[in-house]
Amino acid sequence: MQFGIFTVGDVTTDPTDGSTPSEHERIKSMVAIALKAEEVGLDVFATGEHHNPPFVPSSPTTMLGHIAARTERLVLSTSTTLITTNDPVKIAEDYAMLQHLADGRVDLMMGRGNTAPVYPWFGQDIRQGIPLAIENYALLHELWRKDVVDWEGRFRTPLQGFTSTPRPLDGVPPFVWHGSIRSPEIAEQAAYHGDGFFANNIFWPKEHYMKLIGLYRERFAHHGHGTPEQAIVGLGGQVFMRRNSQDAVREFRPYFDNAPVYGHGPTLEEFTEQTPLTVGSPQEVVDKTLTFREAFGDYQRQLFLMDHAGLPLKTVLEQLDMLGEEVVPALRKEFAARRPAGVPDAPTHASLLAQRG
């Protein structure tokens, strides 16, 4: 099972002192966080893709390419690649190039994003979001698997005798996860292609994601890729830790209360009760994360959101120390002990190459 972190790259004012990092500082801190993730033994670093303030990661391949040059083991992923507003030809080429530079340590999470204005900025209609996601990914899937592609669809000019370059490393495309908060069509898309399904698992009660993951597992088996238990599932989560719960709650409360996404709504206590957010000791994070398996079945990837809501870099790095030194080792041991035979590991370039061979 893979453990890691994902970032949305928000530039948010620290509510405790009023300081706001510059875009330059935020970008550099994201790199520092990725390097720390490898240092403490995590498996994955994933970045979102946004094209509007207050977010900075508009070019994931640039950031991940830089991190690839400074790491040796970390799997580099997107926590959203905008399949609706990016040209699938450019995605095919950019991420194949990144795959070569990173010696295969690359995968992608496809998504539609949560910023409505991005569609007209890139010449698309948000009302066509689902059809765009389905058609664009079908083309990307083909571009990575056929050396010469003829294509005609609704949303882009036709291709005749086209070859995207470079070709995927070793002839093995990057593994793809399809991320969704609410759309059963995306769960079906992931199942149809035999890809992974990543449930954001942050803002909604577990019952909501149980339905999506259950649908994905059922359709994965229907399309002949294996049993429902062999489907490839990833989950998100949010944590904030201190040695004792009271300190964690006291320190995190002003960040939660003023966060752009969930601030000024439910209380911290209500949110931690109703969603996967865990604010407490490392052991409490272990205990709550283990309950995800009870709700969603055995799964392959767990990513945590750590660097958001204006938290200073120093605090995030302290969180990563606790995550890597205490939480993840305990979770690895517990998940491995409870994992039945026949449940696959998270796909990697090496495992996909061996499978192909």
Automatic annotation (TrEMBL):
InterPro entries: Bact_Lucif_Oxidored (IPR050766), LLM_FMN-dep_put (IPR023934), Luciferase-like_dom (IPR011251), Luciferase-like_sf (IPR036661). One of its GO terms (molecular function) is oxidoreductase activity, acting on paired donors, with incorporation or reduction of molecular oxygen. Keywords: Monooxygenase, Oxidoreductase. One of its GO terms (cellular component) is cytosol. It holds the Pfam family Bac_luciferase. Residues 1-297 form the Luciferase-like domain. NCBIfam families: LLM_CE1758_fam (TIGR04036). This is 5,10-methylene tetrahydromethanopterin reductase. It comes from Streptomyces abyssalis.
